[in-house]
């Protein structure tokens, strides 16, 4: 009783005499099944199919989720979609999986800054997918593995296709053979090879090349003695050695003359060869063969299996096969370069030793061994053979006017002299020197014209041609005798003097290519300017004569050019003060030793001007270094050293590499300086000066702990790395294999460019150094700081710093040991002395999580499309930092455990760890907690280069996710009960939400599972189970009757047949098949729709089934006559499309033998009433059990049932006809009252469905009586 002790007003609340009863929900559904992802065994409330997809993923392909016995486990998403399509509002979904299901994962790695012994190398041979272990051969073949050790983690490859593996073992150096030139053919593993010495066949040697031969030539013309040609003619598949450098087989030989033959080659030449290069026929000695262990690809320079290492020997590959070829054995070596590689030259690029000298020519006097004046050239033509003694050469051109022949190449042997007898073809002739009877050089040709009379002491002839560039005349008829040099003659009556060709103003040179009027030429101490160039004779005329005629053999040089503008590294053009004589293809030296650089001219830019033709040239490739204005530039003479074997690239070098791996580095760089020219397939030449002697390579095999996920080309990076943290899919299942993560260095720092006001060393022992900054924004304990110069560039040699504590009052950042070092102090103090400030910026990283769509067999190009992505910015690896990655993203956890792997309690709502990511969880793999505060920048930021040239962070896939489909079965769905609700699984987990009214396990029709559903509904009393009929193809009338016969319950209904929809994962869009799905999900939606639109008392039948295209089996009315009535009570889905009424559910019965509960709406109405009254009467407990309470109870229940009656759920035209409520002494005895029992008796008359609509009709007559 209330107390009234002091006078005053007391306001009291009194309870209403009637407490209303609120009707419970009848359409909240509980579903159990397999989903793509989502929390396990924790019911989740979803209110739309979109929300379901967000939590649990999308549809599941039936072929991937079919277990033993062809049992399909992919139906739950279809059921949920059907539920909401047909009017469902709320569903509790419980995801189940076998305990053996795995979560996808991957480790992310980093380059340990504290480890100075990091190993790194490259692959020497391709590593194919699913290889690399002792079982999955071959192992990885690595160049100079350096510091690799057993147990080390290595990254193989780069970008999104990088593989991280642990080194299981280091093998001995395997047998390999390096080649000097690339293979022509591919050879399978097991192909026979043979090591042979160079064995010259004396009957087939020596030949010479008649012509210059380009690389790629498939035929050559050989010159030799008649005996050699005769021996060669009938041979096929004859091995030839060309210039001691390459080896080809002759496919056929065609005789051109007794001393020449055209040889058709089985494979094209790899190298260009000059006229006169020696060709020898070789024998292939018999010997033992060694088989290849690994297939060799065309273009490769390494053979694996045969360990032939005798440099200079030959190896026959594919012995006896149609692809038999011969290559020279080399020594695998690395060439050190003074200038890094300009580009990633392709593997197989051939390098040749060259001599580079500033452009210079030699003064000659005719005749030479190239330009030969003869006493007669009548009948001679290009292509004839010029013979002098035992030596011969091909005639390149004949000039009738000058009476000379030009040979295609210098004639071997001694120098020619006037009077030597030679033969051109079959024509005999004698070598002469100018002046001759027809050609007379003069001291001047000024005023000399054609038709004038040339007179040498009465020996006369008319002038036929005047040659101003040679200061000479050609006579129409021959003189009786050639005038001697220095003889006085007259031409047109004017006095002249006959001269030799070489004189002060006309200088014959060994080569006039690239010379042009206006160029300055220096011979000895004398310098002149070229006025004309005669290419026929090979001489230059000078604007003014030199003081004296130079001697034959003197060297002629040319003035250096200079740059007129600075050219920075990467520049592709060069501005010169003089372009005279330059042309595309010329090689230039830029700068002087030791900083010179060699480049090739690609083309001349702009119009060619008058001397000195200043302008710009475009280079064949960008410059490696920078060159100032005024630097000297000289055209180079390039001479290939054919005595050295070619140095062919085994691997394409990485950008900026200063080491090139070649198939044969023998003697390269032994005597410096040496320059190697590398010519790519597109003709671009790159010149590199060697920085030292070639170093022989020491390759090694390494064995991995697991096979590779991707294939990797030769040259792929193999780099030692350390595990940093683990990434794990949030939930178990194969869906996680579609996740990718992309790490990147954060471009936008939390602390950006804060000015450093002071750098303070530790004030005493055991104390910490500090920085005073202008602002501390974005800086907190654990922040990594990088010191920058005032211009924003990182300070060289200054290690990163780690913030230990922050004093915001004094703007001081205390630093973790070792703290500030000399480089930091110097940079800060130097900037302050210059009136500037050094800066700091923080270093963070970001992680992006990407979810790809499920593979689409109909449109495979969409497989990499993204469904979703999430990004986490400004992350830290330090647990002290507020953006510690584990804290932000979420720590990994074990399902069922009370806490995550970081020790934090799991979330209550989904039993997963706290974290912002919807897809992943992470775990710091540093085992020593104290080490987690060390400087760790985050995972290495790999990059992908897209076809467009754009760069993006590499997307690293997770792997190892598994749904354990073969282990799916009834125990998984049924689950296990537990007194602790959080530990319940499967169907038992649906006991936790108390507001569930309907339950189903879509598509699972085993007796045990369906009985488990019924048992739960009967035990919990206020639930109703919707069961599926048997799946196709076992879905006949007899099959569904057999399924029905297993059960007898007022709390369940069976629906049949199954429904069909278009295949959500079609193999072809042109042939879209229909796939079966269970009806339970759609029926549950119809229950909800009818409940919401009409009420639970309306039978959920005669309703259109939405979202389907058909049925797996079409039952007729006659068949339903068997299935519908007792004892079957099976609800059939019928096809009424012929009547334009669609596909409808055409039954509303429970599978019970109790006739009063045969109708669904009756059973569910009673569940509704019982549950509502149960909840609404909870207030009655412990109330005084007397008439006042009984009356209140009667009023509450009567009011509630009256509302139900008014809604049409009960029969009768008055409430009294629809129900009664009794609660008085007639319902309770004294014993009941004394023992605390309050008994209410309620009777209801629920409406029944008009299942059979019977219309009786008869004939009517006008006078008939009723």
From TrEMBL:
Segment forming the signal sequence: none
InterPro entries linked to this entry: Phage_sheath_subtilisin, Tail_sheath_C, Tail_sheath_structural
Pfam families: Phage_sheath_1 (PF04984), Phage_sheath_1C (PF17482)
All copies of domain Tail sheath protein C-terminal, residue ranges: 1153-1257
Residues covered by the Tail sheath protein subtilisin-like domain: 981-1150
Family, as annotated: Belongs to the myoviridae tail sheath protein family.
PANTHER family, alphabetized: PHAGE TAIL SHEATH PROTEIN (PTHR35861:SF1), PTHR35861
Name of the protein this chain belongs to: Phage tail protein
Natural source organism: Cupriavidus oxalaticus
